[in-house]
Amino acid sequence: MKRSECPISNCLDFVGDKWSLLIIRDIALDGKTTFGEFIESGEGIATNILSSRLKQLEAEGFIAKYPLEGKNRTGYYLTKKGIELVPIIAEMYLWGLKHGGSNTRKKFASALKRDKESAIQELTEELLKNAKALQKRSKK
């Protein structure tokens, strides 16, 4: 349910909680795809919250599932809607570095500082290519 017509409020209705953006960050910047990989992130998300956020992000169309080899496992990838958040995450990353955050993704930070627009475009293109491949795989 929309709280208001404000575009920022609308965006926050979908990804305004800490965990949703961190899951999207983990997929986009770290290549994480599984429940276990998300749990291992340094922020310490609880399993019940992670499960809830994954379901919510999938229901809202930010991520999609795909089957993994063996033991009925599932992976997640960003959809086009989720990939559209990459520029926001990049800006948040740069802001966080400027205001005391630790540079844990040196390659990404270096690319952003060198040429922000190109770095965002390259990451976006890579994620879109990956999403197309995984979408085909999940339909088999």
Can you tag this structure with a few keywords?
Arc Repressor Mutant, subunit A; DNA-binding; transcription; WH_DNA-bd_sf; 140 residues; HTH hxlR-type domain-containing protein
List the total number of helices.
8
State the order of secondary-structure elements, H for helix, E for strand: HHHHEEHHHH
* Total strands: 2
Low-confidence stretches: none
Helical proportion? Answer: 55-70%
Integer tally of domains:
1
Examine the coordinates and then state which fold CATH places here, giving the name of the CATH topology: Arc Repressor Mutant, subunit A
Question: What does the model show?
Answer:
This protein is mainly alpha-helical and 140 residues long. The chain has helices at 7-15, 18-30, 35-39, 47-59, 80-83, 86-98, 106-114, 116-139; strands spanning 63-67, 74-78. A two-stranded antiparallel sheet has the order 1-2. The mean pLDDT is 89. It holds the Pfam family HxlR.
